[in-house]
Amino acid sequence: MNVFDYFFDSIEDWEKPFIHNSKPPVSFNSIYQNSSKLASYLKKEVGPQKNILLISPNSEYFITVYLAILKSGNVCVPLNQDTEPENLDYILEHTESKLIFSIERLKIRDRVNQEISVIEEQDVKSLLEGEKPLSTEENFDGDLIAEIIFTSGSTGKPKGVTISHNNIRANTASIIQYLNLTEDDRMCVVLPFFYCYGLSLLHTHLKVGGSIVLNNSFIFLGSVINDLKNFECTGFAGVPSHFQILLKKSDSFKTTEFPHLRYVTQAGGKLHSVFIQEFIDAFPEIEFFVMYGQTEATARLSYLPPLKLREKMNSIGIPIPGVEIAIVDEEGKKLDIEKEGELIARGENIMKGYYKDEIATACTIKNGWLHTGDIAKKDSDGYLYITARKKEIIKVGGKRVSPKEIEEVILSVPEVIDCTIEGFEDELLGEAIKAIVISNKGVDKEELKQKVLNACSKKLSSYKIPQQIIVEITMNIGITGKKTRSK
Predict the structure, then answer these.
(1) Residue 427 belongs to a domain with what CATH number?
(2) What is the predicted pLDDT for the residue at 270?
(3) Considering the domain boundaries, does residue 454 fall inside one?
């Protein structure tokens, strides 16, 4: 079954608003009609299973195009608006995509060669004229790829996680079940839709017939607080930095009443218990769901029931419905309670694999199990605890960052002999980035730091720029000859 038809199974004719804060509000029927008509155009002009890039902030336009690509049987590749030119070129070449949907102000046409077609928001309106909604394909293969979500890879090159229609259906149904979502729920969305966590909010609220409020201005905390109140939102989802900023940077958040806010969810990295405690003390009536997942799992693998939050404060909870989780040793043998090992998972939500990367896929999915790279243990009640991260990836405000990508940029500075990128705990971001730069004696350290910052600013997104730069003249090398981490 095409996941589009799964979403609109019984709501395609609803005039109820789905995007609640649009002017005017956008109904389910409007989204269904426009995305289905655009799907009809794409099926005729592009054909099935072609990779189509989508670069846009959260909006009616994004949702319409995203759903149209899925409905047409093509593959959506949603990208961050701040994707570096080098990575955009790599993804275009890697996916062999010839079509990009974007918005005018991003000037994507100026960044790609003439062989790539770019369809902007104003173009879509004319494409819909004369088109009829695409009919349901009865024998559609749900194992076909629906989307490719690119994440930072350990080599510095983005890795494409391939998600099928069935993957999305399975994860959507599971999340709806444990969050008890209904058509009365309204989510305040501050997470971007190019991020699997953000997409899960779109999927679940569309399926249950709920609604969403789009807020692309989290930096203006007052707008978030006002949206939660004025649009009577029942849910809010964020990564650790969202909660830390609301709790520490807003003068009014903790003293504001949110009578309609039923629950909040937190994923995208560890939120330290002091912040969770601060939130639930301020809002004891609001359910707080700690969640854990990976893009490779479509979004979600485990959740901590709010009733267990105080008792199991540092836990990532239990497997979501339909997912099995185990802790194994290096030989793949399942371990007993309180024994540390790698967390692995299986279920219908686990990705098909990494796009055009059989080696990485084989290293990550073994005998049907997703190897997360996270070290964890299980207590006697079956609750899971992450104890370490096996992979090098650093999570900054919920975004995955490859150290190697940053190291390559810094090493382009002539005075730099070597560079090591590390993560360190940060009150607002969860993790922040530290660069340990090795140079020769006699170098002006402050000048070198400025050169490093200039190089990073030119080539990297802002969240990848190191917050700390330490210049040293001695490289720490262990007995094996490998670099050791700075103390």
Answers:
(1) 3.30.300.30
(2) 84
(3) yes
